[in-house]
Structures are given as structure tokens and as C-alpha cells.
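Dear colleague,

Following up on Tuesday's group meeting, I ran the structure prediction for the two-component complex that the binding team flagged. I've pasted the input sequences exactly as they went in, so you can double-check that nothing got truncated or mislabelled along the way. The C-alpha cells for the whole assembly follow below. Feel free to forward this to whoever is handling the docking comparison.

Inputs:
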Amino acid sequence: MAVSWLARLAADAPTPVFAVAGVDAWGAVQELRGDPRIRLAATPRHAAVLLVAGTILAGHGEALRRVHDQLPRPRAVVVWRAPGTGPAIPALAVVDGSADEVVSAVGRAHASILADPTRAQADLLPDEEPTEWRGVGPFGQGGEGMMGGTPYGRPMAMTGDDRDGLALDQLHLTLGPFLDPLPPGLTLDVTLQGEVLQDVAVDRAAPPVVDHAAPGDPATPAAAARRGLHWLAHALHVEGLDALAGRAAHLASQVAVGDVAADRSADRLARLVTATGVLRSLRGVGAVDGADASDRWRQRLAAIVAALRDGVVPRALEPAPSDDAALAGLLVGVTLTDAVSTLVSLELPGVLRPAVAA
Amino acid sequence: MLSAFLAGLTVTAAATLATAACVVLARRAAGAMSTAPQRVPVLGGSQPETHAWSRFHVRYYPMTLLFIAFEMEMMFMYPWAVVYVEEGLKALVEMGMFLAILSVGVVYAWREGAFRWQ
């Protein structure tokens, strides 16, 4: 009784969605932030529906299945604008149409699994620990001891020199390719000590060949503004300003339908973004050629306003280092938060080409 | 005496029942238990290489040490100031001993860099 009452309440709330997007559909997914019927969750743990949008690289199949299984049950999958070349994933609904259609499909899928949990999608990976650990070792912790042991089947982090002369544990992690704050297709191999990145290796997935996404600079002011607003919606979300991210996304959809009042809204949005202090907080973060993240945000905001108000196609932002080692060099020695802010603010060739025609 | 014991027993029984009810309701609301892929941290599709048991530096630690040292001092000094006139020299010596012990902590915090503002 209590459970069905909770299910009814959950069905009325905005559907929590975790989106996995290919580079060709990333911009369109950012635009969904402006729709009050769904809420784009930061992790699969907080979502009920997995939205797989655009071209997912064949090599990311295992990662996609892992993300799928990390959604709590009951879960549903909705596939949007898939070209059919990526890894196959069972879906409750396949949509090829507009953002409005996909949001409706997500809502229907969510309602259907809440009404009948047997329709929810089953796990794709086996429910098995990576190695047998239960009862192994003197204390049943799966290994031989603290140092060099393998509790729960995974080796313990080992020590390394810290910045202040202490020897503390180094955590090796691979972040991505479907981590919410990172641009699509980007994988970071990092060594963390506390919150500081000690070593970084960047892996940029080769952009998939897509016929409807024109890489490079957008040709019209509206397309440039829309592309900028997609970036702004994501960047504001990463900086924790979800309400403004929703406004930016809504503005992007207004631009898409040619709303003439969009230029005034863009002005107001740029003023609000400045008023939040986010530009101040990014000062000194991720400086490339004398321009830090705050300067790049300012340039991008100015470009959006110029495109909408004055109808000019803005000059493209100076691209980030195209060399992976140079990009990794930017991130070594800074905190994880600053590294993410740096990556978000950069124009990353070979990673982020939001579809102009999406 | 017996009634106090009974009261304690009743509260314990009620707390146990409430906890059990919470656990049962939470399990029913949550549905199935988590699987192995759900028990690893969310890394965007990647697997963690090392276990999450790792030691990292609590960098506010020397600051906390300093705060506790001075707070304990004040906590003792207020009641001490009230009885100082009555107790006289004895109270003065006791406070001297207390401050000597406390200053060891402050010196240790100094060595740990608590006064080095960064």
C-alpha cells in the first residue's frame, strides 16, 4: 500500500534521467535541462531512466552497460536518434523525433515501470564480484592485510610522496567516458592524492562520423548562439547553478524556433550569470596563453549575446591544446574541481563538437 | 528503582521496534538489493583499479587541534575565575599546571604548522 502510494508520488514528480550522449546529440541533450517534466541527474544512481542519445562509439559498449546497471531498479532505457552503429542496448522506447517527443517517451517509460515493475529492464552485467573475497584472509577482508592487501577483491591504494612531504595514498581512477561533468568522449586516467591530481592521461575518443552534424564553426548567428547556450547550460550545471542552466537550455530551445525576444533574455541571462559570482570564482583557474577559465566564460557569454542581439557570427574561441600531453599538463597539480572547471571552459578539438543541426 | 528500570526497558524496546520498522519499510520501498556493479563508485562507466580504503591528509587537523586547545582553556578558566578568590594560591598553581600541559599541545600545533597561514 505504502509502496504504491510512493510509486504514484514518484510518477508525478519530474522524471530523473541520466543521459549518455554521443558528440552529435550532446547539445540536444543539454537543451532538455530547460524542460520541467524531466530532471537530468548527475549520476546514474539518482536516475530512473537512462537516455542513450546519438552515436555511442562501439568501444564504449562495456562502459554503457556498466552505467546501465548502476541505475537503481526499476529502470527504463530510452534510445534517441541512434544511428544503429553503436553498441546495442535493450530499450523500452526508441525515439527519432524532437526533444518534446523524447521527453514524452521518457515520462511514459517511467510511468510504465512504476505501474508495473516487471516491465523494468534487467541487469546487463552479472551480479558477481570482480574476485572472490568473502571469508578470504585472516579477518575475512579478502586479502592479507592493510598494505598490499586486496580487500573486496581490489588492491589497496599504495603510498606516494605528497606536496608537503607526507607519504599518503594515491588513488588511481579512470573517469569517463560517461561522466556527467566531462565533455562527451573524454576519458581521464588520473592519479589522485587527496583532491589533487598528481598524474593525468587524457584519452579523446575519435569523433564519430555523423552526416547531420557539421564540425567546426557554425554558419549562422542563431546556430552559433544555440551552440553557445548548450555549452552554457552544461557549464552552469557543472558549477552547481542548475536553475540558470535550465534558463540557458530554455533559451536555446527558443532560439531554435526563432523566438524574437531571445536577445533580451540572453542579455538578462548573461547579467545573472555574472551576478552569481561564478566568473570571480574561476579567476586564475586553467590559464592558457594568459586567459583563464573566467576570461573564457566571459568571451563565450559575450559571443552568445553578440550572436543574438547584433546577429554576428562570433569569432571561434581559441581552441585548447590539441596535443593530449599538453592538455594533461594543464591539469596536473590542480584540484579535481579546478581540473573539471578548466576542461569545461575549454574548446576541446576532437571531443566537443555539439551538433549545429541537432 | 524498578520503575526506572522498566522505563529504560520500554524505551529500548520501542527504539528497537522503530528501527526494525524503518529497515523493513526501507527495504520494501527500495525493492531489490544492490548488485555488484551498483556497489562500485560511479566513474562514468569505468572500473576502479584500487579499493576506496585510502588514507588522505585531513588538512584542517592542526587547526582543529589549536581550536580544541584554546577552547579547553576557556572552558576551565571561566569556573576557575569564579572560585579563584576563595581558593587562592592552590587555584593559581592548578591553573599554572593546566596551562603548562596545554601549552605543550599548542607548541605541537605550532610545529605542525597551524600558525602558518596559506
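Chain B touches chain A through 28 residues (CB under 8 Å).

Cheers,
M.
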